[in-house]
Amino acid sequence: MAAAARSGVEVVVGSNRKLALDALSGGATLAVDLRDTDRGVTRILAYAKRRPLSAIVGVDDETTLLAARAAEALDLPHNDPGAVAASADKFAMRTRLAAAGLPGPPFRRLSPDDDPAAAARAAPYPCVLKPVALAASRGVIRADDADAFVAAFRRIAAILDAADVTPLGAAARHILVEGYIPGREVALEGLLMGGALEVLALFDKPDPLEGPFFEETIYVTPSRLASPVRARVAEATARAVAALGLREGPVHAELRVNGDDVRVIEVAARSIGGLCSRVLEFGAGSGLEDVILRHALRRNDLVTERAGAPAGVMMIPIPAAGVLRGVEGLAAARAVPGIDDVRITIAKGQEVVPLPEGNRYLGFLFARGASPAAVEATLRAAHARLRFSIEPGDEPKDEPGGDTDEGA
Prior knowledge:
Blueprint (H helix, E strand, L loop, with lengths): L1 H6 L4 E4 L2 H6 L4 E4 L5 H14 L13 H10 L7 H8 L1 H10 L7 E4 L5 H7 L4 E5 L9 E3 L2 H17 L12 E5 L4 E10 L2 E9 L13 E4 L5 H18 L4 E10 L2 E8 L19 H9 L14 E6 L5 E7 L1 H5 L4 E6 L6 E2 L10 E6 L3 H13 L2 E5 L17
């Protein structure tokens, strides 16, 4: 919304969340069914008859398919809905990448009704089990042997029973098993323009992501990878988006780098989640959202070269399950040289759930520095000053106070 205001763009926000619509009541809003894409598209088309739209932008996994379908119906710039659906389905994505000849692990899709013991006997080890449709590393578990496989399978099945995966249909209630891919993990933020990939930023993830769970914490850009390796990362991402059929708008890719070997983990037809985009600048006063909006509207003032000093973000992990009762050390964390901001995004009194069942973070730390290494050190120093009081409890109650700034 801030990016739209900077560009003088009128925006109507569509959501099925009353709190989101109430918070934006000063602007135009539209109640849209995000769980039923047919109904959602019908609602958007009816609105567009009264108030023509110039672009439709999905901002997260829940909205990208609906945005693509509605934009297609209105003949606006869009990705093919089939390509968007494939990017949101990890099994469909793996299938398309393999068909295009991209190197990848052995993989297999299982139903929660399958016999996990039989599946465990056929699995490659080590392997990773994951829901085909959930994001933010939710339900992603490494298994090194048959016993760990069965335990992971049953845990993911329970997560799927509790999760809302309605927009993707019955296929989303499956589990993907794939061989474990070793190496350092990086994240690429890109923009597709007519099928051509423009790399906006490449993030290092300095914490090892080896399992049993895969909780992302620190992102730092620019990457410290050597230039030839960065080029291979960009090339692998470009081949992956082409294999999926994506052609327009933001993409967020996760890859593993092991020496000269670069392998795609996932590609999403959206920008980076949460508040992480706040570390990216593109020209004076412009952020990632400015880039996305200007591209969607075919503006001629599009700037895609990242500006500013090395920067990074830490997604503050949840150390234990329970109810958040308080946060100490905020002032000390903000006082660490190089820290731009500290945002706690879960209010006191709310339930907190760690991975693999959870899908949120306690908040975000933002930093800038003279080098990527300095940024990483700053984030770790600030995080060390924070203390979270979490009490076990089944009946969380909201308490006054707390920063409730939510990410997308």
